[in-house]
Amino acid sequence: MSISSTEDLFSLAGDGHGMLGTNKGGVFGRRGMAGFGLAGAVGLVSGPAAGQGGAVPGGDLSRQPPVEMVVELGNADGGHVFGPMRLRFSTGRLYRLVLRNPSPEPHYFTSEGFAASIWTRKVQVMRPDAAGQPRVMAEFKGAIREIEVYPGCAAEWWFVPVQAGRFTDLRCEVKAADGRSHAEHGMRGEIIIE
Ligand SMILES: [Cu+2]
């Protein structure tokens, strides 16, 4: 199967059940990008892990069930935005941060303050298979400073925040056609770790 455009890639959708919270259709689900605006991502924050009562996990922190969050880098209309623009994490929890790029351009997820305050378990590069199910193409382990996601693709950043802070340096420094960066066009955000 050949994939000729972003639209094609995301239309290779899953079977419609299981958006996030399962692996089926999670990253490239049938609803595609449209269903995942701010509301969708915020809903994920209060997903399964919220039921854990806020207690700090003990034991091996890298092996707890991950809290899933989705951030869209840009949008299908070519907008230079993060969706959502504000992310909130808690120390000691394992997160699976899905960075999806539904736009026609590459985008960075860059925040030195954030990167210095987390322990990265892995980064996974995802691609839908012939049946539209997301498959892991590669895993990277070790400290990660920033991630660039190409049009129509997704990456998952698995990490445990270890230090609290408020970081306003989330941005994308890719240069737009007018010579200004996406950040200068408004592609900035804030990350809070508490
Ligand atoms: Cu960008």
Secondary structure layout plus pairing:
Elements: H1 6-11, H2 38-45, E1 67-73, E2 82-83, E3 86-89, E4 95-100, E5 107-110, H3 112-115, E6 118-128, E7 134-140, E8 146-149, E9 154-161, E10 165-171, E11 188-193
Parallel strand pairs: 1-4, 3-11
Antiparallel strand pairs: 1-2, 4-9, 5-8, 6-7, 6-9, 10-11
Bound molecules: copper (II) ion (CU).
Helicity range of the residues? under 10%
Order of helices and strands: HHEEEEEHEEEEEE
Q: How many angstroms does the end-to-end distance come to?
A: 44 Å
Radius of gyration: 16 Å
Biggest sheet statistics: 6 strands, mixed
CATH topology grouping: Immunoglobulin-like
Total number of distinct structural domains: 1
CATH hierarchy: architecture: Sandwich
Number of helices: 3
What is the name of the CATH class?
A: Mainly Beta
Mean pLDDT: 80
Structural class: mainly beta
Assess the beta-strand content as a share of residues: 25-35%
The low-pLDDT segments are 1-53
- Look at the structure and name the CATH superfamily: Cupredoxins -  blue copper proteins
Strand order, main sheet: write it out: 2-1-4-9-6-7
| Total E-strand runs | 11
Shape: globular
